[in-house]
Write a structure and sequence with these properties.
- By secondary structure, the chain is α/β, with parallel strands linked by helices.
- The chain folds into 3 domains: 39-123, Potassium Channel Kv1.1, Chain A (2-Layer Sandwich); 127-258, no CATH class; 271-292 and 318-386, no CATH class.
- 50% of the residues lie in helices and 12% in strands.
- It has 17 helices and 7 strands.
- It has helices spanning 73-79, 81-86, 108-118, 133-146, 150-163, 168-186, 201-210, 217-225, 233-238, 245-248, 260-281, 284-290, 307-316, 321-334, 342-352, 361-385, 388-394, and strands spanning 4-9, 17-21, 36-47, 53-58, 65-71, 94-96, 99-107.
- It has a 7-stranded mixed beta sheet.
- Strand 1 (4-9) and strand 2 form a beta hairpin.
- It starts with a strand and ends with a helix.
- This is BTB domain-containing protein.
- Residues 51-119 form the BTB domain.
- It holds the Pfam family BTB.
- Residues 1-22 are annotated as: Disordered.
């Protein structure tokens, strides 16, 4: 049951407080100029009549309005040692509706999320890539750190990592899943924005910094690296010319959510992925090792009844070292043009090397292993490329 109460807080020397039911507006006395009026409204589902403690929280959208939560002290104390300490001495607390009352510094929606989670009334989106999860999770993570509730972090962080994977294997798996979603979306005769089915990277990045979840930052930054600054969610939706299917399927970001430090980190990462990563993976000793394998294309040997014919055939089918050098030179030349998504570029090269019939199967396998190793090295270096270690030490 929701009940709205108006409290008149007089700022005069008597400092009196009067409580009136809003339904009977005639009972509310006129306020002096130096008084403030505050509205306290009971929460619809979290004002429990058998609760023995009241928490109030201010509204972010309604000035001088507060929501009243009546809950159970024992349940709060069991989840949080900090809340337990706050509620330890109820004798010194003011009362509201006959029970001790604490005015919390948290916003109404934040405290509501925490209490619903504690009471088991909050169901998080279980589907991977659900865009709506970030707001709820940010409230919970913020208060779980503030009130020392580690169980919340243990449950929520793995859920976030499903959308922003900390490993290359899970990143590749997620990319395949998104490609499948795009195929299904493309079959829709009246599609909406494809972004509506996916989490937004700038919001995830801000959550990672503000709620101390560093494991999601590398993939969030890498995804932002793939987008141009004109791939902006808000601007795209304001422009009626962006309603073509090609425009609707593009990934975008809420760039205005980023802090200036985020943009600096992003620019550093773009530079490193374009130049530093290229220098790292194309070191000469490794490339020479990969290019000096001599194999026949069909595994012919120089033994046999007609030795001369076998040698002649073998010479024609010797694995072409020049073809290997040409392949690697092409990868190197195209690197900078593909540095916005070099992981996808190298993965594509893993597949295309199979079509090079002038390179023997053994060498093609070696090249594929080298490309996969390059991808893993780049992934491992993402925290360095985006300057995350330094930023995490400052937060």
């Amino acid at each position: 049951m929701s009940r709205r109460v108006t409290l008149t807080l007089s700022m005069s020397s008597s400092n009196t407080v009067s409580t009136k039911n809003e339904a009977n507006s005639n009972d509310i006395r006129m306020l002096p100029d130096n008084a403030t009026r505050q509205e306290f409204e009971n929460h619809q589902s979290l004002y429990l009549t058998d609760g023995n403690v009241i928490l109030t929280a201010s509204s972010a959208t309604r000035p001088n309005s507060f929501t009243v939560f009546r809950v159970h002290q024992s349940l709060l104390s069991r989840h949080s040692s900090i809340l337990k300490e706050m509620l330890a001495d109820t004798d010194v607390l003011e009362e509201h509706d006959g029970v001790p009352c604490i005015h919390m510094s948290d916003l109404e929606e934040e405290l509501e999320c925490l209490l619903k989670y504690i009471y088991g009334d909050l169901t998080l989106p279980l589907r991977r890539l659900a865009p709506s999860i970030l707001t709820t999770v940010s409230h919970l993570l913020k208060l779980s750190s503030k009130y020392s509730i580690p169980t919340i972090r243990k449950q929520l962080i793995p859920r976030l990592e499903q959308d922003w994977p900390p490993t290359l294997f899970h990143w590749d798996t997620l990319e395949l899943e998104i490609s499948g979603l795009l195929s299904l979306w493309s079959d829709d005769p009246l599609p909406s924005y494809f972004d509506d089915y996916l989490p937004e990277p700038a919001s995830a990045l801000r959550l990672g910094f503000e709620c101390a979840v560093p494991s999601i930052l590398p993939s969030a930054f890498y995804h932002l690296n793939r987008l141009g600054v004109f791939q902006d969610r808000a601007r795209k939706r304001e422009d009626p010319e962006n309603l073509s299917r090609k425009s609707l399927e593009k990934r975008n970001a809420d760039w205005n959510r980023l802090a200036s430090s985020d943009l600096i980190s992003l620019m550093k990462g773009q530079h490193h992925l374009k130049y530093t990563a290229k220098e790292m993976v194309f070191d000469e000793p490794r490339l020479y090792d990969l290019s000096t394998h001599y194999h026949t294309l069909r595994g012919l040997t120089n033994t046999g009844r007609n030795r001369g014919e076998s040698e002649k055939k073998k010479e024609k089918q010797l694995c072409a070292i020049d073809a290997q050098w040409e392949f690697w030179a092409q990868v190197k030349d195209d690197w900078e043009a593909n540095s916005n998504d070099v992981l996808r570029y190298l993965n594509d090269r893993v597949n295309t090397v199979q079509t090079r019939s002038e390179i023997c199967p053994s060498c093609r396998t070696d090249i594929q292993k080298a490309l996969k190793h390059m991808r893993q090295e780049i992934w491992t270096k993402l925290p360095f490329y985006f300057d995350l270690a330094k930023r995490e030490s400052l937060t």
